[in-house]
Each structure stands twice: as structure tokens, then as C-alpha cells.
TrEMBL record:
Name the UniProt record assigns to this protein: Glucanase
Gene3D superfamilies in the record: Glycoside hydrolase, family 7, domain
Positions with biased composition (Low complexity): 463-475
Gene Ontology molecular function: any one: cellulose 1,4-beta-cellobiosidase activity
Entry's family note: Belongs to the glycosyl hydrolase 7 (cellulase C) family.
Biological processes per GO annotation: cellulose catabolic process
Superkingdom as given in the UniProt entry: Eukaryota
Species the sequence originates in: Lyophyllum shimeji (Hon-shimeji)
Catalytically driven reaction(s): Hydrolysis of (1->4)-beta-D-glucosidic linkages in cellulose and cellotetraose, releasing cellobiose from the non-reducing ends of the chains
Ranges where the record places region Disordered: 452-482
Length: 482
């Protein structure tokens, strides 16, 4: 996968763009159940790198030294790509016009991803980007006993759309060291993988995915090949202005593993891969609180708010994933479960996950793939921050914001996930009716528990400030058309 003809910028780094802050506490008190490894600092936050890179799947792929497409629409050029190895040697990933082609803009510490961008080369749908530590390395996060916080504006993101922020156990260099035929690396956004073992990735493990490629019947830019890219995934945020979920997805192996055929899971063998495709999700609406998240509700999605996620570990193993929000200076504790037969959990724990699977009658793929233990291993190894906006050609995003499966009784616990109609989310509809939709992520920070946010308790007296931990309680692969 050589790199040639990169005539446009490869890394997005406006001079004023400072998105990431690392934070620490000056006088830490030990949160339950165990204290985090506090940084030796006087407290506060310091600015880290502020650059992102576009995923390789969106980039123009052309012949080395020329401008003949290796991939056009949703098909490969069989002359340039007669097999996976030859294709990788013949083809190059190009640079990217982040704003003009992909609708990616920045202002201060805010990053905005536009859904549909029309340009002279056609129309781009969605995007996926990664945070960089340098021009050639992704920023690696190790968040056990740490918290991760960001501000988000989903007011312009309706049914059928997903502004996702999550962590993937990708290689820091995009796979260059592991796969010598990959000469593009993190600088060109290579190495993506997730718990769905996606088979629509164009290049996996240093080779093309052109063998056995079948163009999509409902996506003019996508298809599936023989191979998929599996790895651990921690979904911190999958959301629009109707519904939101956070979800760990463990796998039985570490790092990117290339799967083949039905061993990638998918429609005909959903639980046959090494990864958990379902995860253990906490969606407030699905868990029984229908007045917590949405426009005009407790977390008001008509305006910006702060999302705080705390990864509590004991003895090096993840034991709890906590969630809280801050909006208009008020700290909002996470909603509580209101499902018959379940305790009023307000965070993700092994007990919550087991109880949820039983209450909803779902396959416990989460437990079968190692649950919190395997998620812990991935977080200890380090994971890459992913930010994206996308629509869903497989299930119309109904699993996030509507009743799903659509054939199930919506009165059954776990079926309703939001208020969107079961007829919503069809990609051709949202792309034509809501092209100017967007998501804005800003003020991203991470560090000691309680160090990344401030605000008064929603139930406390005016002026009371808290920075301590609260009480314990399709993946997408879309393409731009160049």
C-alpha cells in the first residue's frame, strides 16, 4: 500500500486547533472502589496535540505514480487488483481536502463533522477521523482508573444518524511495523478495526480486501470482501438528538485480527466471530427512563452538553463504567434502570450486563467474549480515539433510536430504544432530507477521576461546586465519493 501523488493535506491541523487536554487533581481523595494513579501535578489541565487524520476508507485510491482509480464507486479495477497482494503494491492512498471534500471543520477546540458535503468531485457521505499524537502515530489512550470527557452538540443530528465517539484497539502506527506492505500507516488513516469485524474495509493487514468483493445493493460507494478487521471496541458515545448509548464490546484476542468469511460473524453467523457484536449497552430510554435524554428533557439535546465517562478498575480489571453529564453548570447523574426484574443500576458493571441480557432475553455474547476482563486488557494495551458521523445501510440506525428488531413486540423490555419511527433512518431519505446535519465535538479532556469537569450538583445548593467522582451505582464504514 504505497503512498504516491498526495497532492492535498494528509493531516488536519489548523493553527488554532487545540482539541485535547490532559487533566489531574491537586488534592485527590480516593473514589470508590479504588484510587486512580494520580498524575504528579498541581492540578488542572494542559493542552496536548491537536491534529486528526481521515480514515483510509474515505480516501481516493489510485495507481502508484498515476491517477487511474483502483476503486471506483463500489468496485475494484481487476487489472490493477487481480489479487490482494498485487493490489496493495499497485495502489496508493491519496491525501485529503478535509473541508472541501469531507465537510470537516475546526474552530478553537471544536471539531465539526458534516453529514453530506457536495463538492466538485461529487458527494461525500459522513466521515471517520482519528486523533494523532504525531504525524505518524495515533494518540493511544490507556484509561483504566481514568475518566474521559468531551462536549458535544447533537442538536442538528436527528433520527437515523449517529455521531459516534469511541475507542478501537488499533495499532499506533496504523499497522506499518506489523505489515511491511503497508507503507501508508497512521498518516493516511490505515489500520481500522472494530467489534463488528467489518468486511467493507478496503485494505486490511497490509493487503487489499478486493478478493471476493461484492458491491453493496444499497450503497453506491461500499461493498464487502472476503476479509474483516476485528478488534476490541469501547463505544463511549453513539448518539443523535433522540437517543444515546455507551457500550463496551470485548473480543477474545488483542489488537487487529483479520477474519475470513463467516468467521467474521455478520448476518448469517452473528456470534461466530471472536468479538461481541452486541456489546453491553446503557441507553437510558431502552433501560426504562424515557424522559432523561432528548430535546427539552433532563439532558437537553437542543443545546451543547458535557459527557463524562469514568473507567473504574480494581486490581487492574475494569469493574465499572460510570456516566454523568454536565449542562448549564449543573452535574446530572446518569439515569437509573427501570426494567422489571432488574436492580436500579446507573452504570455498566458485570452484574448489570448479566441482568440486562436475562431481562431482555438477549444472547450473552458480552460474557461469552470475556466481558469486562477482556475489555480491561484492551484498555491497558492502549486504544485509538475515533470520531465519526454516519448513517446505517444495514439497519437504518433503528437499534439506537427506534424499536428494534422491527418484528418484535415494542412492549417487550429492551425493544424500544428511542422515539424514532420504525420507518425512519433509511439512508436515501436522511441523505436527501437532512444533508446539512452535523455533530460537533469539543473540549476533549482525560485524566484523574474527577479532574475533567466542574459543576454544581443538580440536587445541591446554588454555587456548590463538585469535581469529585459521583457515587457508585455497524459499526459504520462509509465512503466519500471522490
Amino acid at each position: 500500500m504505497l503512498v504516491a501523488g498526495a497532492t492535498t493535506p494528509d493531516i488536519f491541523r489548523p493553527s488554532l486547533y487545540k482539541m485535547l487536554f490532559q487533566c489531574s487533581r491537586s488534592s485527590p481523595s480516593s473514589p470508590s472502589p479504588s484510587p486512580p494513579p494520580y498524575l504528579p501535578s498541581s492540578g488542572g489541565c494542559v493542552t496536548q496535540a491537536g491534529r486528526i487524520v481521515l480514515d483510509a476508507n474515505w480516501r481516493w485510491v489510485h495507481n502508484v505514480g498515476g491517477y487511474t482509480n483502483c476503486y471506483t464507486g463500489n468496485t475494484w479495477d481487476t487489472t490493477l487488483c487481480p489479487d490482494t497482494k498485487t493490489c496493495a503494491a499497485n495502489c496508493a492512498l491519496d491525501g485529503a481536502d478535509y473541508t472541501g471534500t469531507y465537510g470537516i471543520t475546526a474552530s478553537g477546540n471544536a471539531l465539526t463533522l458534516k453529514f453530506v458535503t457536495n463538492n466538485s468531485n461529487g458527494k461525500n457521505i459522513g466521515s471517520r477521523v482519528y486523533l494523532m499524537a504525531s504525524d505518524t502515530q495515533y494518540q493511544m489512550f490507556k484509561l483504566l482508573n481514568q475518566e474521559f470527557t468531551f462536549d458535544v452538540d447533537v442538536s442538528n443530528l436527528g433520527c437515523g444518524l449517529n455521531g459516534a465517539l469511541y475507542f478501537s484497539e488499533m495499532d499506533a502506527d496504523g499497522g506499518m511495523a506489523k505489515y511491511p506492505t503497508n507503507k501508508a500507516g497512521a498518516k493516511y488513516g490505515t489500520g481500522y478495526c472494530d467489534s463488528q469485524c467489518p468486511r467493507d474495509i478496503k485494505f486490511i493487514a497490509g493487503e487489499s480486501n478486493s478478493d471476493g468483493w461484492v458491491p453493496s445493493s444499497n450503497d453506491a460507494n461500499a461493498g464487502t470482501g472476503n476479509y474483516g478487521a476485528c478488534c476490541n471496541e469501547m463505544d463511549v458515545w453513539e448518539a443523535n438528538n433522540v437517543a444515546a448509548a455507551y457500550t463496551p464490546h470485548p473480543c477474545t484476542q488483542s489488537g487487529l485480527v483479520r477474519c475470513s468469511g463467516t468467521s467474521c460473524g455478520g448476518t448469517n453467523n452473528r456470534y461466530g466471530s471472536e468479538c461481541d457484536p452486541d456489546g453491553c449497552d446503557f441507553n437510558s430510554y431502552r433501560m426504562g427512563d424515557t424522559t432523561f435524554y432528548g430535546k427539552g428533557l433532563t439532558v437537553d439535546t437542543s443545546q451543547k452538553f458535557t459527557v463524562v465517562t469514568q473507567f473504574i478498575a480494581s486490581g487492574g480489571t475494569l469493574s465499572e463504567i460510570r456516566r454523568l453529564y454536565v449542562q448549564n453548570g449543573k452535574v446530572i447523574q446518569n439515569s437509573k434502570v427501570n426494567i422489571p426484574g432488574m436492580t436500579a443500576y446507573d452504570s455498566i458493571t458485570s452484574a448489570f450486563c448479566s441482568a440486562q441480557k436475562t431481562a431482555f432475553g438477549d444472547t450473552d455474547s458480552f460474557g461469552n467474549k470475556g466481558g469486562m476482563s477482556n475489555m480491561s486488557k484492551a484498555m491497558a494495551n492502549g486504544m485509538v480515539l475515533v470520531m465519526s458521523v454516519w448513517d446505517d445501510h444495514a439497519a437504518n440506525m433503528l437499534w439506537l433510536d427506534s424499536s428494534y428488531p422491527t418484528t418484535a413486540d415494542p412492549s417487550k423490555p429492551g425493544v424500544k430504544r428511542g422515539t424514532c419511527a420504525t420507518t425512519s433512518g433509511v439512508p436515501t431519505d436522511v441523505e436527501s432530507q437532512a444533508p446539512n446535519s452535523s455533530v460537533t465535538y469539543s473540549n476533549v479532556r482525560f485524566g484523574d477521576i474527577g479532574s475533567t469537569y466542574t459543576g454544581s450538583s443538580s440536587g445541591g445548593s446554588s454555587g456548590t461546586t463538585t469535581t469529585t467522582a459521583p457515587p457508585s451505582g455497524a459499526t459504520q464504514v462509509k465512503y466519500g465519493q471522490w
